[in-house]
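Reminder: ligand-aware prediction takes two inputs, not one.
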Amino acid sequence: MSEPTTIEAAPSDAGKDTIEAAAPVMDIRNLTKRFPIGGMFSSHEVHALQDVSFSLPRGEVVAVVGESGSGKSTAARLLARLMPPTSGEIVYNGRDVLKEESGRASLAYRGDVQMVFQDPFGSLNPVHPVRYHLERPLKIHKKASGRRQVRERVHDLLNIVGLQPVEDFAAKFPYQLSGGQRQRVAFARALAVEPKVMLADEPVSMLDVSIRIGVLNLIERLRADEGISFLYITHDIASARYIGDKTNVMYAGRMVEGAPSGELIDNPAHPYTKLLLSAVPNPHAGLRTQETQARGEIPSLVDPPPGCPFAARCPHVMEVCRQRMPDTTWVGTDHWVRCYLYGE
Ligand SMILES: Nc1ncnc2c1ncn2[C@@H]1O[C@H](COP(=O)(O)OP(=O)(O)OP(=O)(O)O)[C@@H](O)[C@H]1O
Ligand code: SF4
Ligand SMILES: [Mg+2]
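Here is what comes back for the chain with iron/sulfur cluster:
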């Protein structure tokens, strides 16, 4: 993760492609989401996401790890534009997509940024075969036309996600597929639109342990072969390490630390990241499938007090921690933290 990047215009067309390729595909700036609760006459709000900034480098996998209720899905849903944020910016290829008025630009964004959900059982319509689920986005987004081209593209997609023989899988109904196979169909359906970014919200957490690694390897292959940038959301810091070029840690609606994944595991700075890691026996031992649930409860997000959200659980808490959220401090190359133990 890096600080929000300003994308400056290239002085001339020479080198423009290089500059664009180096710029992150997405920059998320101060994204905030509050849900009003308690009806019309209540002023209470759930602070689901607060002042979250990070970037998604082109062709990389950025993992977001955090326990239940930390705001991971809210972040993904905002980025997919399934709902509007309370405030903040989503900069995609240098443009703030929330300010774009045109329906065409918004449609293009919704095609470029696809989401894969946690539940492979609920995401496919049981009355239609796999072929239908893949043909639909191809036709809606005009990615193929004519029976033959659509059929060939469906087969291509099934090949890409490793569901062979493709003819057989195209004809199967969801109930004839395992959870892992369904999740592969969900990836194929998202790929049909030829996305540039995929937001994968806990794509393996409902799968059997034995098939999780196959789906994670599929993500890696799509990144390497198709150049797709991924936001990979998980409870599990070991899978973040396995698949993520970078890992960002969320706690109670805040992003509290981010770094290249190896650096984060080797040199965690935030007391919460350390707590998460202490719950995983050995994060270096490849993919561990247990969920990382640190001890203690996440605080209430309804009208939270000011200051660091981890203050109630932190062994190092100081008076200042309860007064104001710490700013970002850089503690290493591309490694930042929001904690008063660092910086001045
Ligand atoms: N529509 C909503 N109305 C009110 N509160 C909401 C709404 N959606 C989410 N929340 C709250 O926002 C907080 C963050 O929820 P979110 O689903 O983003 O967490 P998460 O990190 O994805 O959790 P999990 O790991 O369980 O999926 C939670 O307290 C949740 O109850
Ligand atoms: S800011 Fe304070 S309470 Fe929060 S993690 Fe750092 S030391 Fe602990
Ligand atoms: Mg979630």
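The longest helix spans residues 209-226. The CA atoms of residues 34 and 47 lie 5 Å apart. We will return to this case in the review session.
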